[in-house]
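WARN retry 2 of 3 for item q-0093 after timeout on previous attempt; input resubmitted unchanged.
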Amino acid sequence: MMATSYNAKDEDGHITVSGPGGGTLRSKKPENTAFKQQRLPAWQPILTAGTVMPAFFIIGLIFIPIGIGLYVTSNNIKEFEVDYTGVDMSSPCFNCSQNYSWNSSRPCTCTIPFYLEQPYEGNVYMYYGLSNFYQNHRRYVKSRDDSQLHGDMESLLNPSKECEPYATTRDNTPIAPCGAIANSMFNDTLELFYNDPNGTKVLVPLANTGIAWFTDKYVKFKNPGGDGANLTAVFQGTTKPVNWLKPVYELDKNASNNGFINEDFIVWMRTAALPTFRKLYRTIKDAKVIPTLPRGNYTLEVVYNYPVRSFEGRKRMILSTISWMGGKNPFLGIAYITVGSVCFFLGVVLLIIHHKCGSRNNSADISN
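OK item q-0093 returned
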């Protein structure tokens, strides 16, 4: 039997093993330092009525005004929503919703009139919204090839297996862009017209650039072959996604907004966390008229390309202004008001309890 001997060394934590094959081995004992032996100086607050109650009152007095300011700012943002799913028979888009399918070669157009009761000033943003669409599904989120989207030629011709079954066609032709996210890209066309009181129909100018994140546009997404490349030649040997009507190099006539760097495509590829979401579609900036969208009658013309009946979804168009805090979202203001009110209420309760119990304790001390 091998004999061992232990030599305690608090400083280095070594043990000495003697005998056949003996030597010095490192033990599992922590070194004798202030950090590893938990002897560092520490501070623990003593919670007393004199410290807790002021903290609750201060939090309440700070959070409640901030919450009111956020809530009022959010409510001042103007927003208008039009549902054009076409579920009801009275809807102008009912026929389009009943007859259209993914591979339809005939575009279906419908027109929805609406009225803006108040003018929209400054920059106005148009969003498209989808409901009951689960972009957060695990397999859906993973169904993309970031190397391909970054312009890698090898990945363009040999897509990642994560894209299956939308990586290649039956004859092994690579799909660009591959994956379920790209395959299900939103492709309705929305146009907005202002019905002037004199009877003319004025097209509202919609900008399709400046809608994607800067890092997505100039870092994450790049066309293969670099800037200025002939995209038709670069994408030779690939094919469009199954549900697309045209290949990726024909998404826009503007070369700086075509291919993988098309901003409509980039916006869609940033998946949503919830099944009901909206994505930026167009911006209305530098309008020649003031306000940007005058009060009055408008017409929304929709080229109905995106079917939602298969998953019982809904489609809508949203017009919105913004503020310094972004779009309309009352949740943050309500959260601040709620937390501040609860803290202030607890401070009042603790003050009452301290006043009653504290006077009793003082009386007992005096009698003793």
